[in-house]
Amino acid sequence: MASFHIRQFQERDYEQVVDLFSTGLKEHIPASFRHLLTLPRTLLVLVGVPLVTVLLSDSWLLAVICIFFMLLFFWFLVSHAWNKYVSKCLHTDMADIPKSYMSAHGSCFWVAESGGEVVGIVGGLPVKDPPLGRKQLQLLRLSVSSQHRGQGIGKALVRTVFQFARDQGYSDVVLETGAVQQGAVTLYYSMGFQKTREFFRDTLVWLLNLSIISFTYSFPSAPKHEL
After folding, report:
1. Domain residue ranges in the chain
2. Which positions ≥6 away from 48 have C-beta within 8 Å?
3. Fold annotation for 1-227
């Protein structure tokens, strides 16, 4: 098992961080595509449209061609949804990591390094409008290189966020992840996160049934000592 260590982000890490983040998210395109094909409404379209084509044209070849282009269209929709999200991130907080994460109190960005290479990333930003009486840190951009998974890097990065949150006086760590990202969902449950809601970010992801799950990890309250 390769060794690794976790440290704060440095500007020289930027290109590796962006590549790791983008590649990690786009890895979910095939799984999202397979998920889309299991939906009843998708199956209805894939069966119904070719049947109508056969009835109208009396050509099975045309029906097969129709199925091929529908599958191509569905792949395009799924790819577009993920690429759109990646682009949004790269034009917001990931555009300038030092400014977004490193310049303000209560936020930070970390990398896991192995053999001089960035193999994992995670960030934390304060929630702007937390529930009354709560101080929440949002865990963001967790990703581990596919060649270095299964080594405990993801858990180590989450624990780093937990320690930072405790030190900064946060009451909760919150995050959002796609339901199709089964590895991430399993990781968060295993580390004590609780699911708080499931929703769709926009109309496209609703059509593709790519729901988002919100998780919360709450730190135990400090015991009160009697005077």
Report:
1. 1-227
2. none
3. Aminopeptidase (3.40.630)
Residue 218 burial (10 A CB sphere; 0-12, 13-18, 19+): middle
What does the longest C-alpha to C-alpha distance in the chain come to?
Answer: 88
Name the pLDDT band for 2 (thresholds 50, 70, 90).
low
Identify the burial level of 71 via C-beta atoms within 10 angstroms of its C-beta, where 0-12 means exposed, 13-18 middle and 19 or more buried: middle
Q: For residue range 175-205, what is the model confidence (pLDDT) as tens digits?
A: 999 999 999 999 999 999 999 999 999 998 9
Q: Please tell me the pTM assigned to this model.
A: 0.89
Burial category of 15 from C-beta neighbours within 10 Å (exposed 0-12, middle 13-18, buried 19 and up) = exposed
The amino acid at residue 135 is K
100-109 pLDDT, tens digit per residue, is 999 988 999 9
Give CA angle at 100 (8, 148), nearest 5°.
Answer: 40
